Amino acid sequence: MSSNEESMEDSNGHSFGKVKQRFKDRSQVTHLMGVLGFGAFCFILGARPKDIRYVYCLFYVIFVPLRWIYYRYKKWHYYLLDFCYYANTIFLVTLLFFPTKEKLFMVCFSFAEGPLAWALIVWRCSLVFSSVDKIVSVFIHLLPGLVFFTIRWWDPEFFGAMHPEGTPERASWPYVESQSYLWTWLFWVPLAAYFLWQVLYYLIVDVLRRQRFLRDPEVMTSYRELSKKAKKANNVWWRVSGLLGDQNRLLMYILLQAVFTVATTALTVPIFLSYKLHVVFQIFKVSASIWNGGNFMLDVMPRQVILKEEKKKSKMSTVPDQSDEISLHESATETNNTSETVHSE
């Protein structure tokens, strides 16, 4: 090996070490801030549960715009058209401008403890404190349920002010005239709002911006990511989505998501009526996100490191092969030149 090659290897190794150290330092800082932030949130939840809604609003107005900027750079910004962001925007507007509208509160409760909460579990959102992106993903799905839990059970002054127009204020809440009233505002109206989102999403992503996606396959949406992973794994979701043929996979995805939304929305009715069931559900959600985070750190991350090392080794192994081919080609050329010289003489 020549001195130039040695110096190049040293410089590459030195630069790689610098990059690795910067990445490690950044991850440690993110982990520290994530743990401290989560601890502060838990403290506020126990000490001042009435302020949790303001923590949530602050989180939304800071991190969602930052996520849009980051996702725009990564070509992931169409993720922000997903239902979870649509619902979170409704939550923010409700808490800031219509906090005492009982019916609107029930719709928000249904969204938060229905599709959003179960998406946290089904899509395996992971609470990994060293990743800002994963922390934000978990909180987008977890915080709304905790906010409406505190309002539903721990804030009598807040929900005591909610009452139908034309009726006096009351100490008891919710004001449920009948089961039909409960199902209307916890099930049917939320489903109508969901289907409105689905229509708007389809028009924007699959009609108005269709050519954009055809031109650039790197632009990602939820459907693109899920179908890509399902196809690679050839799992049950890929087979189910293909029941109507490959050309109708998008339609099957919409239908499956609709079934998921209907089922999880229906489950919010018993949760709304039972404090014990609601507490158990909160524990279940937090435990699932922590469990998924541990699985990511102990299983997924090591496999990613191994794959990177294997790719690195494969790249390094191709370098000697190429150099051998070059040397053989040069020696063959020299031999031919020598033979031609002898022949001419």
From TrEMBL:
What GO terms describe the biological role, i.e. biological process, of this protein?
phosphatidylcholine biosynthetic process
**Which residues belong to the signal peptide in this entry?**
none
Composition bias type Low complexity, residue spans = 333-345
Where do transmembrane segments lie in this chain?
Answer: 29-47, 53-71, 78-98, 104-123, 135-154, 182-205, 250-273
Q: Where is this region: Disordered?
A: 311-345
Mind listing the UniProt keywords for this protein, alphabetically? Acyltransferase, Lipid biosynthesis, Lipid metabolism, Membrane, Phospholipid biosynthesis, Phospholipid metabolism, Transferase, Transmembrane, Transmembrane helix
**Cellular component, GO, one term:** membrane
Question: Per UniProt, what is one GO molecular function of this protein?
Answer: acyltransferase activity
Source domain of life is: Eukaryota
**Location relative to the cell:** Membrane
Recorded hits in InterPro entries, A to Z, give:
GPCAT
Q: How does it sit in the membrane?
A: Multi-pass membrane protein
Q: Which PANTHER family match?
A: GLYCEROPHOSPHOCHOLINE ACYLTRANSFERASE 1 (PTHR31201:SF1), OS01G0585100 PROTEIN (PTHR31201)
Which family is this sequence assigned to?
A: Belongs to the GPC1 family.
Protein name, UniProt field: Glycerophosphocholine acyltransferase 1
Which classification does the entry list for the species?
Eukaryota, Viridiplantae, Streptophyta, Embryophyta, Tracheophyta
